Here is the input.
Amino acid sequence: MTRTRVLTLGGTSEARLLAAALERDSTVAVISSLAGRVAEPRLPPGRTRVGGFGGVDGLAGWLVDEQIDLLIDATHPFAATMSIAADSAARRIGVPLLRLSRPEWRAAPADRWHQVDSLREAAQLLPDLGSRVFLTTGRQGLAEFAHLDELWFLVRTIDPPAPPVPRAKELLLGRGPFSEHSERDLMLRYEIEVVVTKNSGGDATAAKLAAARSLGLPVVMVRRPRPPGGVTTVESVDAALEWVAGYQSGRPG
Ligand SMILES: NC(=O)c1ccc[n+]([C@@H]2O[C@H](COP(=O)([O-])OP(=O)(O)OC[C@H]3O[C@@H](n4cnc5c(N)ncnc54)[C@H](OP(=O)(O)O)[C@@H]3O)[C@@H](O)[C@H]2O)c1
Here is the structure.
């Protein structure tokens, strides 16, 4: 029996869960790709490869060399460059592409969200909202906040960030899931006045939003970059598995 060869572009918990499910399926051979940004990544089961492909040409060549039948882009909603490259490479060589993207967070009535389109815009808004900031936008892009010397930052990342970073800060290393209780405690202990986050979606890091809501704190929410148009997109691992099964049965979804 010829197994369906699937490449998943990962770096998310959904990608790990998807790879685990595909790995259990004897009709599928799955390979997971990681960018290699995190020092100790949570590796999915099965075969993995780590590091960039070298742009669209590199990815297209890799898909051909590895005889990939199906490509699933399960990267983080803010990994825009990789998603665009996946779309271009898949179109070029005619490999079906699926995007697996977790739902966005939506504001509840009691939320005080300020939605912006970039980290730069978030930084511009901050001085009007508070002087003690909980910055949870990840390791990349902290340079946008480095000039805000009049503000104090609690910066939480998985791995230590590279400079430039804000001068007045405390660095907290941590990876979700976090509980609402612990997030609330943290915000109270550090006398946080405003929270900054990307709209990553998902349960693992949503507790900070509930904690900010209960404390009445404003949240600067960075909107997602626009994904490439025309790509079939699902929001759950189960739906992605159905898509794979649909191709295998000759009835693509
Ligand atoms: N951006 C975030 O906020 C965020 C948050 C959590 C996790 N992540 C994960 O971290 C990784 C990097 O994110 P990013 O925002 O830096 O991506 P990005 O800006 O979209 O991609 C930059 C380059 O990194 C390489 N790359 C990205 N994802 C890859 C993957 N899964 N496998 C192999 N190469 C990959 C590609 O290099 P080449 O051009 O050389 O192929 C890509 O052009 C992604 O896997 C993403 O899922 C990102």
The chain has a mean pLDDT of 96. The chain is about 30% helix and 25% strand.
